[in-house]
Amino acid sequence: MKDMTETLLRVDDLRTHFHTFAGTVKAVDGVSFSLAKGEIMGLVGESGGGKSVVGFSILGLIDSPGRIESGQILFDGEDLAKASEDRMHKIRGKEIAMIFQDPMTSLNPLHPIGRQMDEMLRLHTDLDARGRRARCIRMLEDVGISQAEDRLDSYPHQFSGGMRQRVVIAIAMLAEPRLIVADEPTTALDVTIQAQILKLIRRQVREHGASMILVTHDLAVVAEMADHITVLYCGKVVERGPTRQVIDDPRHPYTAGLIASIPDPSDRKHRLDQIPGAVPDIRKLPRGCNFRDRCPRAQALCAEREPDLETQEPGRSAACHFPVEGGGT
Amino acid sequence: MLGYTIKRLIQMVVVLWAVSVIVFLMMSFTGDPVFMVVPIDATDAEIAQARRILGLDRSLPEQYFIFVQNMLQGDFGRSYVFREPALDLILERLPATLEIVLVAMAMSAIVAIPLGVYAGANPGRFSSRTIMSGSLLGISLPSFWVGMMLIFLFAVKWRIFPSSGRGDTVEILGTRWSIFTADGWTHVILPSLTLSLATMAIILRITRAGMMEVMRQDYMKFARAKGVSRRNVLYRHGLRNALIPVVTIFGLQLGDLIAFATITETIFAWPGLGKLLIDSIYRADRPVIVVYLMLVALIFVVINFLVDIVYTLIDPRITVK
Ligand SMILES: Nc1ncnc2c1ncn2[C@@H]1O[C@H](COP(=O)(O)OP(=O)(O)O)[C@@H](O)[C@H]1O
Ligand code: SF4
Ligand SMILES: [Mg+2]
User: Fold this and answer.
1) Which ligand is nearest to the CA of A294?
2) Which CATH architecture has domain B94-314?
3) Are A81 and A71 in contact, with CB atoms under 8 Å apart?
C-alpha cells in the first residue's frame, strides 16, 4: 500500500442545509472524514443520504436555497468552506475535479468535445493552442478513444454513453487535479461498460497520483475500488473504516444491511436481503437513532438518544448503541 | 446543404405562388378598379376601352396569368394615384422602414438578452422581479401611446430629439438612408424605440424562460465544476442553449415590424411602407397594395429560411435535410 500518512482533505463537522418552503433539509449534518494523498475513499449510502451534497459542498457548488452552515473543508490546509468565489474558480478543475453521474447530460450539447476539453486547459494552464491540442489528444487516447484527433471536432451526441463518460473523465483529469470527486460515475451506464469505466477511473487516479472520493450507492463497486469507506445515512456518517474490514466485518447495522443486499453473482436465484422500510423524510427525523425504524437490533435506548460516532478500534468507527460484533447481524 | 437550399427555394416559390393567388382573388372580388382610372364623367365607351387596356375584359384565369407574367417581369402596374410604377414606390419607401425596424430589433436584442439572462439565472432576486414587471409594461403599453409620450418628453419638453420625418439622408446604392447621417440618427431614435419596446419585452421573457430551463441542466454545473467563471457559464454555456426559441421569436417579430410598423410611422410622420400602405388603402390604390402584400410575403418567407439556417448554426443536432 502507498504511503497514506499525508492528509489531502479533511472534512470536519460539515453541515449543509437547504432552506426550502417545506422546511429545512439537513442534507449533510455533521459529516467528518479525511482523505490521504493517493487514497480512494468510497462514500456510500442509499439515495438521498447526502452523498452528492457532500461532493458539491467540497467544490463550493451548493446553490440557494442551500448553504454550508458550519464546518471546515480543509484542502491541503486551506478551508474551502470560507474560500472566496474567485479562489474557488482556481481550485475547481485545477485542484479538484468532478465526474458526474450522467454523461448524457454533463457535456454541453452545443460545443465540440475538443472545445470543452480546451476550456479546461485554457483556464488552468499556460499552454499555447498547439500544446493544449496535443494534451487533449493524448488525454483522449489515454481514456481509450481511438482516432482522438478527429474526435476533437465531434459533438457529444455523436458519442455513446460509455464514450461520453470517457470524455468526461478525460476532461476531469486534464489539469491534473489532486482530488477527483466522482459522483456515481457508472450508475447511468450499461452494466457491461460499468466495469471498464471503473477500471479506467482507477487507473487514471492511480497514474496521476490523485486522491478520489467515489460516491456510490453500490457497495460492490466500493469494495473493489476504495481504500476506505465512509457510510452515510440521513446526512450523517454512520460508519467509517478500511474497506476490507468494513465489508468483512461491518459494525453498523445499516452497513451490514447494505452488504447483505449486494447481489451475489454466483447465485442469481437467491433473493436479496433488502433493508426493510425506506429512508425517512429528512425534514422530520425522529428523536434518537435515524435508522431505528429499519433496524433489527433496535432497543429502547435507540429511540431516546442518538448514537455518536465512536471509535470501535483504531481506524474504525461506527455510530450505534449496539454495534454488530464478529460479522453476524 | 445545396440540396436543402434548393428545396427551401422551391418551398418559398410555392408559398409565394399561393399568396399571389390569394392576393389576386381578393383584388378581383373587391370592387371594380376601372372606376379608379377613368374620369367621373366617362362615357360607357370610354369605360369599356379602359377596361380593355387594363385587361379586365378577359376571363379570370387569363387575368391571373397576365398578372403573374407581369409580376415576374417586375411589372406590378402603375399606382393609380402617383402614376408611377407601384414597385418603384414601394422600393423607394422600403429602406425607411427597414432602417427603423433594424435599429429597433438591435436595441431589443442588446437590452433584452442580457436582462433575460440575468433574470433567468437569478429568478428569486428582487431586481429580476422588477425586470419582469417592467417587461409586462412593455408588452401591454400600446405603441401609439408610447410614441406620443416619447414625442411629448423628448421632442416637446426636453427638445432632445425631433418628432417627425427622416432628417438628413444620404444616397447609397440608389436609395436614401437616414442611419448614415448624424441628423438622421436623431430622427431614427424615437420611432425605433417605440417599435422596440414590445419586442424587447417578448425577447426578454423568452430568454429568461430558456435560461431558467438551462440553469437546471447538468452541463451548467459541470462547467462550473471545471472552474469556468459565472459569467462565462451563463453566456458561453447557458445562453446558446436557450437561444432557439429566442431566434424563432426574433424572426417573427422582425417580419412583423417590417410589415406592420404602420402606427409608429404614422405618429412620427416617417415616410416608410406603413404610411404608404395606409394612404394606398384609403385611395384603393390596388397595384401598390398588391406589391406591398407580395413583398411582405416574400420577407416572411426569407426570414423563415434564415431562421432555419440560424438554428443549424446554433445547434449541431439540428441538421438541414
Ligand atoms: N437543491 C436542493 N434543494 C432541496 N433539497 C435538496 C437539494 N439538493 C439535495 N437536496 C436534498 O438533500 C438530500 C441529500 O441529497 P443527495 O446528496 O443528492 O443524496 P444522494 O446523493 O446521497 O442520493 C436529499 O434529501 C435531497 O432531497
Ligand atoms: S443505534 Fe440502535 S437503532 Fe440505531 S443502528 Fe444502532 S442498534 Fe440500530
Ligand atoms: Mg447523488
Assistant:
1) 2
2) Orthogonal Bundle (1.10)
3) yes
